[in-house]
């Protein structure tokens, strides 16, 4: 049995409100970051202060600030593709209604974004370590624009690999076995984390594009969001995946020339 229309309308309204809030906060955060003085680096580029600890700020505080920014940004980027998965989950446990259904939905979504939070916890120290190396080794700093172009190129090539195809298949099918599990809070949390893990892996190359271009770059964010949505939900998903790969390869070559 599918959830009542009123419940479904409330679900979509809440999803739209959450997306609007997270997108607004992301845009405001990007604007505030762009207003800060970036650090000029050898090679003619500027390092974002996102990877630099502010005066009187502890590394724990810097990591917490990054994680909050990361979670808000991921909510804005991933909600468009997550909402259809949550709707399928709600239909699969449709015999459950009322507050219990809403609680289970929230737990699936929370588990999903917890997986992305763990990903962010891994990204931050790697970003800080790379930024520190770039500040100490001018040769590495001068090579960053070329390395970024090469990374975008490789991310595009990855779209054509069997690895990418496997990860996308797992991501698309992550919720197919929900009908065989009980509608319990612990199970809902695990379902969300499982879906989040598959999504993190299938998005790894696209996320890398955003990280090397600029984690708070709105253009990169928009491209990655549309790409993720297209390769999961477009009727011709495989064709969309290849088209995204071509665009990334062209962009990588352009940055290398």
TrEMBL record:
It comes from Dyella flagellata. InterPro entries: PpoB2-like (IPR018688). The lineage of its organism: Bacteria, Pseudomonadati, Pseudomonadota, Gammaproteobacteria, Lysobacterales. The chain crosses the membrane at residues 59-83, 103-124, 144-163. It holds the Pfam family PpoB2. The keyword Transmembrane helix applies. This is DUF2182 domain-containing protein. Keywords: Membrane, Transmembrane, Transmembrane helix.
